[in-house]
């Protein structure tokens, strides 16, 4: 079929359109390819940056899906990156369970609220520390968007932070210590700012200027030193800052009302400020003045010594010599004023015949010149000493002491009298030895090591020992063994070593008595001597022993007689009870009207009989108490006693007598009276005896007071009256047994007070009586609680 021209044109047009479309598509493809290549290149660059970045990013999608790199998985100790955030809490990672839970909670919060977070963790089993920084991914919206989790290796930074923290803490402690040191310094210290005004002061500065506190001193600008201008406190600080080095000056100041000299130091600081401190040198100045006065006083004292003193300086010239030196060696003051050298002084001594006679004087003088060269030994405390024997029998002791400054101190002591005294002493020693040998008392001296050193003839004769044995200086143990045969009891010879050791080692004097086999008795004694030895003495006491035995036998006889007397008094007291009982009974019957009505006069007589019987009965009881043995169990049994109740019971017993006498009987029992440990019967009798004494000593219508109180350790009983009182002699004998009775008004002093004293002392207490004629009597008893 033959197409027409129009159809051909149409086909050609279509082909052209197809070709054009293909070209367009080809261009678009080439352009897309170029864009893709650029994207790939950018992605590669970004991946390179991410791979080289110190931080690793992890994307956490909604639903907990994780996009994690292998590098991050390696940091967490995982073989492969996890697919879900839940796998982080499943274990097997470097995160602890707590850290994983907190990280998941932070991610969940960031997904929901978009809140960024930072979390630092330390991997388990590793020193690596990781800091996670998380936040919602850009462009993510909604309730659960994606979260970008950046991980930073913070191991080095954490270590550096720890190091810096430690360094900061160390510097802080150093600063605190330095501040505390400055604050505690005993000297005033301060700091001036760049304008030289006070900026900081310590407590010593505040005390010195009498300020309230440091802030008050700084605010008021109180200066330690008064004055202004070139001599003021700011002048030194300005000079120190200008010169760039510390400046020192001495200025006066008034501290605590006293004038003091202060050494002020101003130190410039790199900051432009100036620090300062002050040292009180008032005592130093006084010490220097005192040292000068001491030197002058020492030289004045040396002039008063009997020994000659000469001091040479480091140049070997004479610096000082005292008056005894000038007299001893005939030195003129005019010649000494030129400060002669050591050699010239020796030559002048030789001219005055005050040096020992020597064959080679130059060599002798050279040896003495070497004394100046002994400074080392002098520093160690050494000194040269020698004796000079001069013409005419003069003896000089010479001491040469090198001085630290190279000088020499010579001391010349005239010992002529001492040598003469030593000779006289030897004579006295010989006389003492002769006296020692002829003493009647046996004496022996034992050394500190226990050996016999000296003995007299009486000592050797008494023990009957051979002279050869004693001359061998036996030890005290061997001597005691040899001497044991002379004793009635050989074992008693051990007393000798004991006494010697007590005197030599213990430095104590001890003694003892022993009997010899021949019937004699001796008193031994070990006496420590000043030189460390022991003097052993033996004194024959045979005659005194016999006299002592006779006295002992007489004392035994007297004691037996006293027991017989005591038994007789006790028996008589018991025998007196029977007639007293009869008299009392019949008198009471008469008083009761059993024999008919009595006249008033007869009733008075019967009343007097009853009162006398009562008093006589009390006296009999007192006598029995005094004669009763103190070891009686009935008297010494003790228990816990209510002292208040006991005192009231005793007062009830005496109350009828007080009423008959119309006395004002006052009883004061304080709550502090409490309880004591004692015998209730005896304690009641103590109070009764004291009250009877007070009632008997008080005239009709008088006043008697019974008062008790106490404390934690003791209880007190006080009985007082306003009666006739007692004189000094009666007070002195008030507690004596069977003492002569002294009248008290119309009554006599009985046995109540001695009995009370006996019972109180048996309880470990004390009793005290105070009285004056016409002023009444006060008796105080102190009883211990235990």
Low-pLDDT parts are 376-380, 629-635, 743-749
Structural class: alpha+beta
Strand order of the largest sheet: 2-1-5-4-3
Largest beta-sheet details: 5 strands, antiparallel
CATH superfamily of the largest domain: Histidine kinase-like ATPase, C-terminal domain
Secondary structure tally: strands:
29
Q: What gap, in angstroms, lies between the N and C termini?
A: 158 Å
Fraction of residues in β-strands: 15-25%
How would you describe the shape? extended
Domain module count: 6
CATH architecture of the largest domain: 2-Layer Sandwich
CATH topology of the largest domain: Heat Shock Protein 90
Percent helix: 40-55%
Please give a structural write-up.
- The structure is a single chain.
- This protein has 786 residues and is of the alpha+beta class.
- The protein folds into six domains: 50-153, Beta-Lactamase (2-Layer Sandwich), CATH 3.30.450; 185-280, 2-Layer Sandwich (Beta-Lactamase); 287-419, PAS domain (Beta-Lactamase); 438-540, 2-Layer Sandwich (Beta-Lactamase), CATH 3.30.450; 541-628, Orthogonal Bundle (Helix Hairpins), CATH 1.10.287; 635-784, Histidine kinase-like ATPase, C-terminal domain (Heat Shock Protein 90, 2-Layer Sandwich), CATH 3.30.565.10.
- The strands form seven sheets. It has a five-stranded antiparallel beta sheet, with helices on both faces.
- Helix 19 (542-592) runs antiparallel to helix 20 (600-627), helix 22 runs parallel beside helix 23 (680-697) and helix 23 (680-697) packs antiparallel against helix 25 (752-762).
- Residues 376-380, 629-635 and 743-749 have low confidence and may be disordered.
